[in-house]
């Protein structure tokens, strides 16, 4: 079965993709717009009692449905949980029970969804490649295997749906339903074997005994005949707008977001203009699906506005005479969407919507949905810094992940649990959750999830003072971000996020390596930053000033790394000279590391040991000279920092005269920038060096957040 648009965006009472008509405002908003202001909406910190009640699972096992409408809800729940055989069993038990046409239509729609999903699952299982099969995408061919009995059952379902819609007083909708589903049955019965994209475009066709069976011919021909008869009887062709609305209601959701978004937009635009009766109002159901698609492509403000409109419209329709059949489904879907879209702008409101969605699942037995909503709730609680509530929710969520049927569904909840426990400094529990994510993501080749897990593990090790472990995790994080950024399947809109993640991770590797005295790893991180900056400069993926700042950081880090390496070489030369002087026949250490005569101590070190450092310093200075317009103040800061570090390096090598000159330049630069604390510190060092004292420290460390 195709995965839902979001693990937490649907129910059986509200399955992913259900909600309200946007009216005239269904135009996608720009990514730079702000989320609607909800400051006037009263939101409260949830009590532990309310939280405990919302996180309580449904009664297990659930009581049997008490009517056709409850059976329809249960069937949708089972479909979303991918328990298709159970869904079909429940639907068949209630199919012949008398009920109002609107309720009967709900059940038939749910049964059709279950039957098509079961068919899709069988097709995916039958099409696993054998030793002699090859495919162009993902290692398996896609082939629909629909037997004669399947076609007969689907045909009977469609007939019942059409009769039920006519009985409800919507003959035009019945005709459109027959037209749309008839065409879908013909596609299922077609003998085409869908292989690679190339073979599909070339129209490759293979014969199939299923397609030539009498049932297949009946299924495809019957729908055509009914469609022609309806056109002749009504005199007019079915309006395209009605076909668009029915297609979105009755057909399975397409896998591509942009395809579904176009179809939903067409249906929502056509819906207010339709002059024909419809069974209930499909507007809220279609609009919340459209809002979910807007969220999927990053238009959060418009998705939020639309979801709020959905809730208002659903409440209005529910209050009318006869109620609104999809009220619960629509409301839970809208609340679930708002719990995600409001997370950054208004996390407390997001908490309220997540709880409202969970409270709408009293009789929904759907672990993936429930776990997804609790994951959203936990993230919002962490953003609100509600530690008691977040700790309780994380414990409940960690136990619920064991109820999920697939390993890939456990990754997001475990990441949320790990992040909460790191924030709460519960490091042992965080290590368990994040290590499990690393293991699962490695098995599933999910680099994105492993990237997030390694980032959190690096923070965990750093806060515990485990520098080497933090460095290892940061290097892995940078490698994963680099891989995802360069992956051809990464959408262009997402690529800048991973490029920035790579640069940030490499910048942290650089700092940690310098703090740990590992110049080789620091220099490697610097090279990776410079390589990425060069490849991205001028492409528009990231602002040029951000790329320049990363490059300046990396160049100065490389200069420090080379200085540390040179100092280590000088210490090794001095130690070797001391040992040689103490040995019988020793010469007192007059030779350098490369055999060059050494006559004047550390300040007369061979040029060979200083060349890489001087080269790195020149490259750093050249980078600072390429300052982007309007960021001269930032360049001045980096210039003062460079002189300060250069003075410390020279002093550590014993070159006091040059160290004093550089230190005085750094002091002037710090004072010009108004950094009196740094100026006082370097002035004290100048006085100390001038009196013959040894260097007391190596200058300021790299800023923790230079960007």
Automatic annotation (TrEMBL):
Biased composition annotated in UniProt, kind: Basic and acidic residues: 605-614
Query: Compositionally biased, Low complexity: which spans?
Result: 196-222
Compositional bias (Gly residues): 20-32, 583-594
Polar residues composition bias: which ranges?
Answer: 1-11
Residues of the region (Disordered) are 1-44, 120-148, 192-235, 578-614, 686-707
Q: Tell me the protein's name.
A: CHAT domain-containing protein
Question: What's the superkingdom here?
Answer: Bacteria
């Amino acid at each position: 079965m195709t995965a839902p648009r979001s693990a937490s965006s649907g129910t059986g009472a509200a399955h992913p993709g259900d909600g309200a008509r946007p009216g005239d405002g269904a135009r996608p908003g720009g990514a730079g717009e702000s989320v609607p202001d909800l400051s006037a909406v009263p939101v409260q910190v949830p009590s532990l009692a309310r939280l405990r009640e919302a996180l309580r699972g449904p009664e297990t096992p659930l009581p049997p449905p008490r009517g056709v409408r409850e059976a329809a809800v249960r069937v949708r729940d089972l479909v979303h949980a991918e328990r298709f055989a159970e869904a079909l069993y429940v639907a068949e038990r209630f199919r012949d029970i008398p009920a109002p046409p609107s309720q009967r239509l709900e059940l038939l729609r749910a049964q059709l969804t279950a039957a098509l999903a079961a068919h899709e699952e069988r097709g995916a299982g039958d099409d696993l490649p054998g030793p002699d099969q090859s495919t162009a995408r993902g290692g398996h061919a896609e082939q629909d295997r629909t037997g004669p009995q399947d076609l007969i059952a689907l045909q009977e379902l469609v007939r019942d749906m059409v009769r039920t819609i006519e009985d409800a007083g919507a003959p035009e909708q019945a005709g459109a339903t027959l037209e749309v589903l008839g065409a879908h049955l013909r596609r299922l019965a077609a003998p085409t074997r869908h292989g690679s994209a190339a073979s599909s475009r070339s129209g490759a066709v293979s014969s199939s005994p299923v397609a030539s069976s009498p049932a297949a011919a009946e299924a495809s021909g019957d729908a055509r005949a009914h469609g022609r008869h309806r056109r002749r009887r009504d005199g007019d062709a079915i309006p395209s707008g009605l076909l668009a609305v029915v297609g979105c209601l009755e057909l399975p959701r397409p896998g591509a977001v942009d395809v579904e978004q176009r179809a939903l937009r067409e249906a929502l635009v056509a819906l207010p203009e339709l002059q024909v009766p419809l069974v209930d109002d499909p507007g809220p159901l279609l609009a919340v699906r459209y809002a979910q698609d807007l969220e999927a492509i990053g238009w959060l403000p418009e998705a939020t506005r639309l979801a709020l409109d959905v809730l208002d419209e659903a409440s209005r329709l529910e209050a009318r005479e006869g109620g609104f059949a999809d009220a619960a489904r629509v409301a839970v879907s809208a609340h679930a969407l708002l719990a995600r879209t409001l997370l950054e702008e208004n996390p407390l409101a997001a908490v309220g919507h997540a709880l409202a969605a969970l409270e709408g699942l009293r009789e929904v037995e759907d672990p993936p949905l429930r776990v997804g909503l609790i994951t959203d709730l936990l993230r919002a609680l962490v953003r609100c810094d509600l530690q008691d509530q977040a700790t309780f929710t994380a414990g409940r969520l960690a136990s619920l992940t064991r109820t999920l049927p697939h390993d890939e569904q456990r990754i997001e909840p475990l990441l949320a649990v790990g992040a909460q426990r790191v924030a709460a400094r519960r490091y042992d529990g965080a290590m368990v959750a994040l290590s499990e994510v690393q293991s699962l993501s490695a098995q599933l080749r999910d680099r994105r999830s492993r990237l997030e897990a390694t980032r959190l593990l690096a923070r965990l090790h750093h806060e515990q003072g485990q520098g080497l472990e933090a460095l290892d995790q940061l290097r892995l994080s940078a490698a994963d971000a680099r891989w995802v950024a360069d992956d051809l399947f990464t959408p262009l809109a997402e690529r800048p996020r991973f490029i920035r993640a790579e640069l940030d991770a490499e910048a942290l590797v650089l700092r940690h390596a310098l703090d740990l005295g590992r110049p080789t790893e620091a220099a490697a991180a610097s090279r990776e930053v410079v390589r990425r900056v060069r490849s991205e400069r001028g492409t528009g993926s990231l602002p040029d000033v951000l790329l320049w700042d990363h490059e300046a950081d990396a160049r100065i880090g490389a200069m420090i790394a080379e200085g540390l390496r040179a100092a280590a070489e000088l210490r090794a030369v001095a130690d070797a000279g001391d040992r040689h002087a103490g040995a019988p026949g020793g010469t007192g250490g007059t030779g350098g590391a490369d055999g060059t005569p050494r006559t004047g101590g550390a300040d007369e070190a061979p040029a060979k040991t200083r060349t890489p450092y001087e080269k790195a310093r020149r490259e750093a200075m050249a980078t600072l000279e390429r300052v982007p317009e309007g960021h001269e103040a930032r360049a001045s800061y980096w210039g003062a920092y460079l002189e300060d570090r250069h003075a410390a390096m020279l002093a550590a090598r014993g070159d006091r005269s040059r160290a004093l000159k550089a230190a005085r330049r750094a002091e002037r630069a710090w004072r010009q920038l108004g950094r009196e604390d740094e100026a006082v510190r370097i002035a004290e060092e100048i006085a100390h060096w001038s009196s013959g004292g040894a260097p007391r420290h190596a200058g300021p460390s790299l800023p923790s957040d230079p960007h």
